[in-house]
What does this fold into?
Amino acid sequence: MKKKTLVNVETKLFTFAEPPNELLFESGQKLGPITLAYETYGDLNQDASNAILVLHAFSGDAHAAGYYKGDKKPGWWDDMIGPGKALDTDKYFVISSNIIGGCKGSTGPSSKNPKTGKPYALDFPVVTIADMVNAQRRLIDHLGIHKLLSVIGGSMGGMQALQWVAAYPERIRSAIPIATALKHSPQQIAFNEVGRQAVMADVEWNHGNYYGKSRPERGLAVARMVGHITYMSDKSMEEKFSRKLKEKDSNYKFDADFEVEGYLRYQGDSFVRRFDANSYLYITKAIDYFDLSGAKLIPTGKSLDVAFLVIAFKSDWLYPPYQSQEIVRQLKMRHMDATYMEIRSTYGHDAFLLEVEEETMLIRHFLGRIFAERGRNAK
Amino acid sequence: MKKKTLVNVETKLFTFAEPPNELLFESGQKLGPITLAYETYGDLNQDASNAILVLHAFSGDAHAAGYYKGDKKPGWWDDMIGPGKALDTDKYFVISSNIIGGCKGSTGPSSKNPKTGKPYALDFPVVTIADMVNAQRRLIDHLGIHKLLSVIGGSMGGMQALQWVAAYPERIRSAIPIATALKHSPQQIAFNEVGRQAVMADVEWNHGNYYGKSRPERGLAVARMVGHITYMSDKSMEEKFSRKLKEKDSNYKFDADFEVEGYLRYQGDSFVRRFDANSYLYITKAIDYFDLSGAKLIPTGKSLDVAFLVIAFKSDWLYPPYQSQEIVRQLKMRHMDATYMEIRSTYGHDAFLLEVEEETMLIRHFLGRIFAERGRNAK
It folds into this structure.
């Protein structure tokens, strides 16, 4: 049976415009007005107890599910969100929120600074995952939701979910961090730093002042290529490309010979058309700064009334399972309700977007339980 | 007891200058004169049966051991080569050969084209590992050695050793490929391709015509940073850097915060002072093209009278042990004398330069056996 899909989806904007509605950033800088792009699917029930917040990964956006009017490609997690799917929109009210610092409709370095009439560029404050979540908390207030049924996300989306736990545990019943970590290891920082260096090495970057001029496309493309290697596994690359040769575009000596080279170049080129180089710098830094290791995930040290489903993937070497196990260890030390699942996938980090069947089974069951228990746990 | 060291070491040049002494490249192009830089340590014995050829990795050079006059830093494998060391220069005559296509004294894209008086740049022919070994074979002829006791190298040096097996099995008694592979996987090609793209994205690269002008230093530095991540392991980075912060050089927003970032920047910056960007492109391509998989290592299909010691490192994710095991599998299928050793190191790919003690034990014993048997095996 073919599943129904959501159509005529629209991205909405939430702006908290007037002082004191500006946002105080972790860095101490204030900025306003702030806009967050978001989408919603399904309907909020009477007691506002069926809302799930979906948080996206590094290069994602608010468009998680369904089709824009006339569009041929659905949102990035359409396999998981919709009628009868893991996040069942017949039952739940699903909110997908973008992040500040980005370039997908929310306020970020490419937004116009109302004080100068020009894009902020590097005048934009340092952004942290906590800043992103603080802005999202205002959106949730605005939507009239006191307590989210769940916060869910993969990769950087998982970090946002963990930040919700650390900052607003009383606002959530459960959290589903997928393929993520409590902090970046030096290897993960190193990959991000190489991407930043590639962007900043491009003369067009011009210390961030490239708006209205030619953009640092070549540097940003190189940065994205590095990323794509880390999203796949050795094995999934072998299965997809092996050493297959591609038809050469020219007789140029350093033209792409192998299919994998053509794939990376394509990924790099298409990324620069949809992403802002300064956002690349700000968001990767936010990820590197993120650190909820040790006692920081639960600063009170007391067991929280938040249930967890933690999911990792065996072949994910960018966010290896040991990092998810560390999340679970922190929870179990506080006798909390936490389920850990390691999915046997060969897709590497990308698995969180691809292993739909197993994720659906796990998440549907978990959410069903939390939803059923919501009355009992109400405080 | 402190080991003796070699002093007053000198790099020599071997040039095969007159036609027909030019080199026919695999690509079909001919080039001459060709110069190879090399060093020798110890003395050749009377029947020229104690010669070992050392082959270096991607960014290495002929200076493998001892000290140049007045120099404070020894060659790159000084821990392994010298009196009483694994490659014992009291017993063996050790030759360390550079490669063509490089920028360390041998003919490469930065060498002057005698026909134009200018550097070859991209007019230099495509170089393969087979071309490198063909040039080395002329050097071995020139040194009056009919049969090498062993060929040994790590990483790309291991590929050269394997190429000696495939092309000149009658000229070697043994081979010691370390932390290497019969062919690059798509992931390995992908990392090299990202490095090449970083170089070519630099406007200073100028399609290879930067000699005498400003060089593509920023792009080459980014390429090197990617390399350095792949040379270490997740664990060795954790042990070396963890999330330690460094003192910031400035208040600049995207200055290095973490020690690992400072380390990568330092590695990138120091590399561009000693390496040519076009050589980077040519040599990484040579590595990607290399393919002795399946029957290609031993084209006759018959068992060879060449003994093998194959060494891999548990935490090496750039050249994972399964690639060394595949070499051994090919040898064992032909009932050949092959010893496989996987060293439990946390250093990642760099282990072949660092795990001196275990390597010394293995290699000294292996070479001793081959040297003792040389009379018996003589044909």
Summary: The mean pLDDT of chain A is 95. Chain A touches chain B through 53 residues (CB under 8 Å).
